[in-house]
Amino acid sequence: MGPAGRGSVGRIVVVGASLAGLRAAEALRDEGFTGDLTLIGDEPHEPYDRPPLSKAVLSGWLTTDHTVLPRVRNIDARWLLGSAATGLDVPGRQVALADGRRVDFDRLLIATGTHARPWPERAGGGLHGVHVLRSRDDADRLRAALLSGPRRVLVIGGGFTGGEVASACRDLGLNVTVTQRSGAPLASALGGVIGRVAADLHRDAGVDLRLNTTVHALEGDPAGRLRRARLSDGTVLPAEVAVVATGAVANTEWLADSILAADHRGVRCDGACRALAADGTVVEDVFAAGDVARWPHPLFPGHPLRLDHWDNAVAQARTAAHNMTHDPLDHRIHQPLPAFWSNQFGVNLKSVGLPTIADQVVVTQGSFDQHRFVAAYGQRGRLVGAVAVDSPRVLNGYAALIEARAPFPPVLNAPDGPAQLDPVDAEFPHRASPEHSVTRDSSPHIPATAGPVLTAHQ
Amino acid sequence: MTTTTPCSATDLFTHVLRHGNRADPYPYFAQMRQQPVARMDDGTWLVSGYHEIAQLLHDPRISADRLNPQDAARPAARSLLVQDPPNHDQLRRLVTQEFIPRIMGMRDHIHAVVTQLLDAHTTPQPGQLDVVAELAYPLPVTVICELLGVPREDEPVFGSLARRLTRGLDPVDTQTDEEIHELQQARTELVQYLEVLIQQRHTAPGDDLLSGLMFSQDPSGGMGPVDLRVTLGLLLIAGHETTVNLIANGTLALLRNPEVLARLRNDPALATPLVEEVLRYDPPVQMSGRSTLADIDIAGTTIPKGARVRLVLAAGSRDAKRFPDPDRFVPDRPDNAHLGFGGGLHYCIGATLARAEAQIALTALARRLDSPRLVADPPPYRENTILRGPEHLMVSFDRLTPDVQAN
Question: Where would I find the FAD/NAD(P)-binding domain in this sequence (chain A) (predicted)?
C-alpha cells in the first residue's frame, strides 16, 4: 500500500525533535502523509545542529542561536517541546510524557538520540565546573566556563569530542590537559596508527596529552567547585573546568518497561528501521532512526551498528519515513556506508566505512609525515574503511570500493601512493570497552565481533 | 541514426563528434547510457552513466593524466588539469589560495560589467542582439583579464589565442595536421606573450592574480616559471571558453522555455537553481578525460589498467537513474547534484565565479529584454565537441530596456 492508502493517514508521533526527528517529519510529508503529526522533544529548543557545538560554538565563531536547523519544508506538525517522553505502551499505542500527558499514536518513530555519558557522582560528577557536551545548553555552559578564564581545562577522553574540545581550548589560548585511557587519541575509532598522528596534532597544538591515563576522581573545594583531578598515575592535576568526553549513551530509559529490545546501546531494529521486541520479532508500527537506532548493516554482518553520525541520521530518517508510509513489500533497507568527519587542530579528518572492525591499516596515498594522507582499513583481506587526513576529496572513491567489497590491501597504484603497500596492525585497543568509562553498565566483556558501538563525535 | 540496429560505442562517439550533431548530441548520449561503460575500437572507454562517472571521478585508481600516445602534440609542461597528486595538489593549493579570495565579493563588479555591456545596446526600438558576442563572451573575458592582470588593450590578442588553444582540447584524432601545427604555433605565441607579462611583474608587482602566484608565500614554495606559464594558460582558457557557453546555453534554455524566462524576470532568486539546471541539462564542458592506474571493475565489466577513459559528463547528468525526467529543463530542480563542474580532486576551481557570472547575466537578460525570441533555432554551433556552445546566439527583441532595478 502506497501513500494513497493507509500510509497517508492516521496519527504519527515522532519522539525526539533533533536532526533525525525533524528530517523524518519532513520526509513523512514528502512521502504524502497527510494525517496528524506530533513531534515530542525533551529540550525546549526547536531542532538545532550539533556538529558546530564542539567546534564553532566553543571557539566563539557561532552562537547557539545560529545552530537552528534549516527547515526543508513546512511539516504542519504539533510540537510538544520541553516535555520528555517517560514511557511507551506499545499495545495501548501511547507515549507517556514527564508532565503526565499521554499521546496516542498509530505509528511511532523513536529518534531520541543519545546523551553524553555522565561522570559518576561518587567521583566528583556533581562539582561545579564539570561539564559534558551534547546539547546546546551544554555548549552555552561550557563556552561560558571557558570564557571565565580557567587556569587549566581537563578533557577526560581523547575521542572525537575530546579532541575538538581541546582544539577549541587551544584556539582560546587556554591550558588544556587531555587524558586518554589507551595509547593514542582516537584509538578506539581509528586505531593506534592513525592515533599517533592525532597525538602529534594534540602535542603540536600545545595540549598536555596524558596517554594510558585515566581519572580516578575529580575533587573540589568546600564550596563544591572543581579544583583538581586525581589521575591513575598518582598525579594530582589542578583544574577548574573538566569536560567529560567518554562517549554517548542511547536515550532509551523511557523504553525500559516497553516490549522493545532497547538498552544503553540503542533500540534494536531491522534493516527497514522497524523496532524489534526482546524476542527479536518486529514490533508493528514502531520504527527507530538516528543515533538511537541499532541495526544490522548488510555490508558488515555480525555487527549491529549504532552510528552517531550526522549523515546517517538524515538518511535513516528518510528511510524510516518511507517505510512508515509504505507496505512492507515496498520497504527500503537502510544500508548507507557509514561516514563522518571531524575538524580539530586545523586538520580535517574524514572517515568512510567501518575502520573500527579492521585488523590492518595501510597508508595508500599522500604523506603520513606531513599529516596529509589516506589510510585504508582491512578486515581479513577485505577493504572495510578509509580515513582521509586533510584530503577529503578522494574519499568517495574508497567508499565505492568498500561497497564493492574490494580486497585489502586495495590495488590502486595511486600516483601519490607508496610503491608497495605494506599493511600493519591497526592497533585497536579493547574494542568493546568505552574509553574512560567509570560506570559499570558499559558491558566491557562483549566480544569485539558482537557490537562495536561507534561513538564518533557529534 | 537508425533505430533497428544498436549502435556501437565507436559509432555513437563518431556521431557525437560530427559537427552536424553539435546542436543536439543528447539522443546519442541516451543511446550511450544503455551501456554506461563501453569500450571503443581504439581502446578508449566511454563512461556515460551518472553513478559510474561519479565513482570514477573519485576513484583513487584513476589518473587525470590522459596518457595521450601522441606525445608530439603534448606540451612539455602540463597544467594541473592533467596532473595527479602530489604535484596537482600543490599547484591547486597555490591557485586556490590566490584565486578564491580575489573572487569573493565580486558580485557587484560583475553586475556592473553586465550592465555596461547591455547598456551599449539599450534601445526603445525593436532590434537584435548576439548574446554570445555582446555578453556571454566579453563578460567572463573581462573578469578573468582583470583578475589575472592582463591589460584591457591586450584582450583581443589574448582572446584569439584562447580560441585557437581550445580546439586542442578535442580528441587529437579529430584534428588535422594543419590544426595541430596551428595549435603549437598558438602555444608558442602564448608563452611569448606570458613571458613579457611575467617580466613586467618581476619589476613591478601588482595585486593581481599573476603577481599573487609569482610571489606566493606558501610554505611549499611558489610556482616555478614553467608551472606559472602553464597555469596562466589554463586559467586563460577556462576563463574564456567555459562560462561563455554556460551563459549562452542558459539563454537558449530560457528562450526555449518562455514560462521559465517569465518566472526569472519576476523572481531573481530563481537564478541560483536555474544555473545549476543549465549545468546539468546543457553543460558547457561535455566530457573529461582520465586514464586507469589499475584494473577497475565497474558496471559489470573491467576497464583494464592503462586504459584511456572518457567521462561523458553531459550524458551522466541526463541519466534517468539519477534524475527524474532528465530531459526536461526544470529550473528549480531539487537535489541537483549534476556533473557540470566535474567532481573529486579536479572539481572546477572557478565554479563560484562561473555561477555568479551566469546568474547575474541571465537575470539581467530576463529583466531587460522585452519579448526576446531566437532568430535561429538551433543557433549555429562552434566546432568544439568538449567545450561545446553556440557560435552566435542572435536574439530579436521589442525593446532592450535600461537597468532600472539594480540589486
Answer: 11-317
Q: Report the SS3 class of residue A69.
A: coil
Chain B residues in contact with A398 (beta carbon < 8 A): 60
**pLDDT tens digits along A112-131:** 999 999 999 999 999 999 99
Question: Does B361 map to a domain?
Answer: yes
Domains of chain A (ranges plus CATH)?
6-115+249-330 (3.50.50.60), 118-246 (3.50.50.60), 339-450 (3.30.390.30)
Q: What residues of chain A lie within 8 A of the CB of B55, using their CB?
A: 396-397, 400
A72 at interface of B, judged by CB pairs closer than 8 A = no
Please check whether residue B407 lies inside any domain of the structure.
Answer: no
Inside any domain, residue B108: yes
Q: Kindly determine whether residue A396 and residue B294, on different chains, have CB atoms separated by under 8 Å.
A: no
Q: How far is A410 from chain B, CA to nearest CA, in Å? A: 10
- The arithmetic mean of pLDDT across residues A90-116, rounded, is 97
Give the confidence band of A432 by pLDDT, cuts at 50, 70, 90. very low
In chain A, which residue's Cα lies nearest the Cα of B85?
A: A416
How many domains would you assign to chain B?
A: 1
Alpha carbon of A154: minimum distance to chain B alpha carbons (Å)? 34
Contact A416 B86 (CB under 8 A): yes
The verdict on a CB contact (< 8 Å) between A412 and B293 is yes
Q: How open is the CA angle A311-A316-A318, to the nearest 5 degrees?
A: 105
Predicted confidence band at B172 (pLDDT cuts at 50, 70, 90)? Answer: low
Look up the CATH number of the domain holding residue B69. 1.10.630.10
Chain segment B224-253, per-residue pLDDT in tens: 888 888 888 888 878 778 999 999 999 999
| Interface confidence (ipTM) of the complex | 0.71
| E strand residue ranges, A98-191 | 102-104, 107-110, 114-116, 130-131, 153-156, 176-180
Are A416 and B295 in contact (CB < 8 Å)?
no
Q: Answer yes or no: do B60 and A404 touch at CB < 8 A.
A: no
Which residue range forms the structural domain that includes residue B129?
9-400
- Report yes or no on B204 lying in a domain: yes
Q: How far is B235 from chain A (nearest CA, A)?
A: 22
Long-range pairs for B324-330 at CB < 8 Å and ≥24 separation?
Answer: B327/B26, B327/B30, B329/B253, B329/B256, B329/B257, B329/B260, B329/B277, B329/B281, B330/B277
